[in-house]
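Bench notes, afternoon.
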Amino acid sequence: MQLFMAAYGAEAGNLALKLLPYGGLYIAGGIAAKNLPLMQADGFLPAFTAKGRMTPLLERIPVHVVLNPQVGLLGAALCASRL
């Protein structure tokens, strides 16, 4: 699981470099919510920021984990209510 969390963090860092979400990167889904203690351990965040000369940029981007399992349904309901 430590190897998986490091790979997960590295890919999240790649996505953050593509999108530059200065307001924060929000990670939703079962993997992050169910393995929150592992994400807070020493694997995810160091791999997220380990991008060479881009490290200072990624260190300024906050990472948030969405814990609400209904977030997809809430977004769909909001979209439907606006139609």
